Amino acid sequence: MHDKKILLKETEIPKQWYNIVPDLPHPLPPFIEKETGKPGVGIVPKIFPKAIIGQEISQERWIDIPDEVREIYKIWRPSPLYRAYRLEKALKTPAKIYYKYEGTSPAGSHKTNSSVPQAYYNMKEGITRVTTETGAGQWGSALSFAAGVFGLEATVYMVRASFDQKPYRKTMMNAFGAECVASPSNRTAAGRKILAEDPDTKGSLGIAIGEAVEDSLESEKTGKKANYTIGSVFNHVCMHQTVAGIETQKQFAMVEDYPDAIYGCIGGGSSFSGLFWPFYHDKTSKKAPKETQFFAVEPTACPKVTRGYYTYDHGDTAKLTPLVPMHTLGHDFMPAPIHAGGLRYHGIAPTISVLAQEKQISTIAVNQVDAFDSAKIFIRSEGIIPAPEAAHAIKAVCDDARKCIETNTQKTILFALTGHGFFDMTAYDEYFSGKLQPYEYPVEKVAESMDKLRKLYPWLNDVTKQYITSCKQ
Amino acid sequence: MHDKKILLKETEIPKQWYNIVPDLPHPLPPFIEKETGKPGVGIVPKIFPKAIIGQEISQERWIDIPDEVREIYKIWRPSPLYRAYRLEKALKTPAKIYYKYEGTSPAGSHKTNSSVPQAYYNMKEGITRVTTETGAGQWGSALSFAAGVFGLEATVYMVRASFDQKPYRKTMMNAFGAECVASPSNRTAAGRKILAEDPDTKGSLGIAIGEAVEDSLESEKTGKKANYTIGSVFNHVCMHQTVAGIETQKQFAMVEDYPDAIYGCIGGGSSFSGLFWPFYHDKTSKKAPKETQFFAVEPTACPKVTRGYYTYDHGDTAKLTPLVPMHTLGHDFMPAPIHAGGLRYHGIAPTISVLAQEKQISTIAVNQVDAFDSAKIFIRSEGIIPAPEAAHAIKAVCDDARKCIETNTQKTILFALTGHGFFDMTAYDEYFSGKLQPYEYPVEKVAESMDKLRKLYPWLNDVTKQYITSCKQ
Predict the structure, then answer these.
(1) 3-class DSSP state for residue B187?
(2) Are residues B106 and A425, on separate chains, in Cβ contact within 8 Å?
(3) In whole angstroms, what is the distance from residue A446 CA to residue A334 CA?
(4) Whether B393 contacts B365, CB under 8 Å
(5) Which domains, ranges and CATH numbers included, belong to chain A?
(6) B421-453 per-position pLDDT tens digit
(7) pTM of the model
(8) CA B280 to CA B294: how far, in whole Å?
(9) Residue B471 pLDDT exceeds 80
(10) Which of B70, B73, B168 to mutate to test the interface with A (most CBs of A within 10 A)?
(11) What is the pLDDT at residue B470?
(12) Do the beta carbons of residue B212 and residue B157 sit within 8 Å?
């Protein structure tokens, strides 16, 4: 029996990030500009630093991590890989379960893996303020921390539902030196418009993105340009997250094991990408000793892959971003206030969409009550209170591990424990007091949103067919 | 430059706890029974398992850690020792600062180091329920976790002030499978009496201890005996905490350094004891390469050592415990609702009292606003949000490190970072919004409490003089 915690030295923090783009089954479809219906990146060059744009469109497989970023990674990286001995015992499964735990970071989740390089590149290019949105508060906290490290101001637009559910996330952002504003807010035209229509709105990630982007675009007029930063979906973010997967490969080598199946929850898709991309590279480069399967787990309350359309859609409700090739529930998606704020985004990373469409990964939808049931087993065996987002992956892992009992297979299962749930205790309180409800997003609503989208852009169908292989639409 | 995080392997988890008692400058004064004024342990044998009582009175220097306990320790132990490179830089100090971080445990603090063996020994002796009190909620969470691990029920009486300030601690205890009750409660005669006198009382640790002890004593009548467990003060608890100090010694050996000064906050004194006792043993056994100094840091709002009397007093407000030889503010002490709930206890470990009286350790009192000022510097440099309790030690460390600038001394400073502050965000919110106030406990009140105590036990002066060397009274 090897150690419960498989640990690496700081010198083993990866020196490069892995970019999946050159290894995809086919090239990524381009972004489309809403004005023309033609390929183009729209506002992207106006809101990101050059280094980030370079990474976003890069075709390079390996990209160097700056020393200054690795130095900050040392605060919490390499993160531990745990063997879930006690969970296995609780489930009575012959399966071997491992989890890569990203909850030891300053913000309590994987998000700092990308916030640190994003803040760094902005600082290098002379930017002094950054803006962003946050759903669950994980990304906002992570950006606040990173901005502080590199001496930047930060303005975080936090989805009202989460802002109310998790007031302490705001305090955490303040502790790191940043400002946190409930979204929709009266700071932006987009926010004011939505508040005028519905003053009691709970907000959405799509709305908050719109506000953070608008803040960045408008800041030019003040003479003090603020850049926008993003916590998921974009290629560069997913790529930054691969430090987790690359470390995990080294950790599996230490115990002479290799995963048969990898699970992760998906909101925008970055934490899951960060864990499985390097293993996908093993596969495409014929180095994988096993036929590893990859499972993305989404909530039934926000089933963009299992119930959404693979088409072009905006990343934000205000339609400021270009049209992105992805699985989507529609940019006007209004999430139910379920307790996995980080999974309530209407779209998904374009890379995940390609891989899902090409059946390189499978997607499972899980309802939140089942997720919390599994979290309870996990807490009482492993002693870690997981973020509700990660609990969705735990549910799928428990199901797989239980199947191994019937088939008596000693399968090796790996999952992403993306963060701790210490700021999600309202959710746990609701669960333990029996008030939590399952929720399924109605399929009709997706169809309605798609109809609206097609009416808005009559050329959309042709464009989608042209660029998206085997599109559902 | 060595690694930021100095890590040990799981095989290096200590196999024995260290007991300071045989190495004290003189024997520990005995407990006294209130009925007779003579040495005796009162209710102690009725509320603890035999193994724990054996450890409490043990004169052995090293006590074996059961394998089952070490197995559970592996969930989070060995804990990391950090070199505070970025804090040193922020303070511009030539001093080398290290901190032993106990916040990675399931409950988020050092408390699980003792809750796990306490639950284990209770389970071994056939007990199926345990009771306890909790101030800040750290100990209550830790006991809840440990009870769950060994299949015990747990009832936690939580001081009302903390129960209201930190509602999520209750949820955490529920998550681990325990019950958490605000104290004073109507579950016990002691609680009902206090509620009748003052229905709005904020409670105190002394009151909560009384309730938990009464619950244990009364349980005998129900045919299902519940034992009491305690989170600090007692020798066995301080001894369980020495896993931290013993690990730290190994970690310092790895980087070929040794502390000149060790700091820790003191509530009941167990986390500080856990860190410094093994280094004190180096000193008494002439193995220490340096004349290490030990600094206990208490809040000005609860200054039991700097302002209290070294005498005999009860551990609880209900006067159920025997009289304990310790520095005290009086068992009727009603703490101000300051934000370091874990430091609001009126007394201190008898071992700490002996060492303080014999000038083997120094004590510093810090006010909470200064503590949070230092916490802010720490958060923005080291990226960890400390528990407010630990922030008191950080304040004293920062003062010392700043003095090193003037004297240009490259001193090695170690402190106990006892836990994270993720459940203390109300306190941080108050601090960051400028509402936090400093508070000093009035000396007159201590004198009043001591007068009352002497009137209650007219023989107290004689007894104190007989057993306590150089007593202040």
Answers:
(1) coil
(2) no
(3) 11
(4) no
(5) 5-17+77-108+242-457 (3.40.50.1100), 19-57+111-228 (3.40.50.1100)
(6) 999 999 999 999 999 999 999 999 999 999 999
(7) 0.96
(8) 9
(9) no
(10) B168
(11) 55
(12) yes
**Cβ atoms of A354 and A24 closer than 8 Å:** yes
User: Cβ distance A412 to A95 under 8 Å?
Assistant: yes
The pLDDT score that the predictor gives to residue B119 is 98
Residue of A nearest to B176 (CA): A380
Q: Which residues of A touch B382 (CB under 8 A)?
A: 75
Q: Is B27 helix (H, G, I), strand (E, B) or coil?
A: coil
Query: Is B167 within 8 Å of A429 when comparing Cβ atoms?
Result: yes
For residue A140, give how far its alpha carbon lies from the nearest alpha carbon of chain B (Å).
15
A5 close contact with B: CB closer than 8 A: yes
B148 contacts on A by Cβ (under 8 Å): 380
Return d(Cα A371, Cα B343) in angstroms, integer: 37
| One-letter amino acid for residue B273 of the chain | S
Give me the sheet containing A293-299, strands edge to edge: A5-6, A81-83, A96-101, A412-417, A261-265, A293-299, A362-366
| Structure token digits, residue B280 | 């004190």
The shares of helix, strand and coil residues in chain A, as percent rounded to the nearest 5, are 45, 15, 40
Give CA–CA dist B245/B249, Å, rounded: 6
Choose the closest CB to A425 out of B104, B168, B429: B168
How far apart CA A174 and CA B386 sit, in angstroms, is: 15
Residue B345 C-beta-side C-alpha neighbours within 13 Å = 29
Rounded Cα distance, B37 and B458, in Å = 10
Q: Is B148 on the interface with A (CB under 8 A)?
A: yes
Q: Which of residues 57-96 of B touch A (CB under 8 A)?
A: 74-76, 86
- Separation between Cα atoms, residue B362 and residue A439, nearest integer Å: 58
Question: CB–CB of A76 and B383 under 8 A?
Answer: yes
Give chain B's mean pLDDT. Answer: 95
Alpha-carbon gap, residue B229 to B241, rounded angstroms: 15
pLDDT at A356: 96
pLDDT at B472 over 80: no
Angle at B251 between CA B250 and CA B257, to 5 degrees: 100
CB-based contact, A99 to chain B, within 8 Å: no
Among A133, A5, A26, A19, which Cα is nearest to B75's?
Answer: A5
Question: What is residue B386's DSSP assignment?
Answer: B
Give the whole-angstrom CA distance, residue A237 versus residue A24.
Answer: 17
Residues in chain A where the model's pLDDT stays below 50: 471-473
* Residue type at position B202: K
Q: Do B108 and A422 touch (CB under 8 A)?
A: yes
Question: Residue A277 and residue A271: Cα distance in Å, rounded?
Answer: 10
CB of B254 less than 8 A from some CB of A: no
B425 to chain A, any CB pair closer than 8 A? The answer is: yes
Nearest CB partner across the interface for B425, out of A105, A171, A376: A171
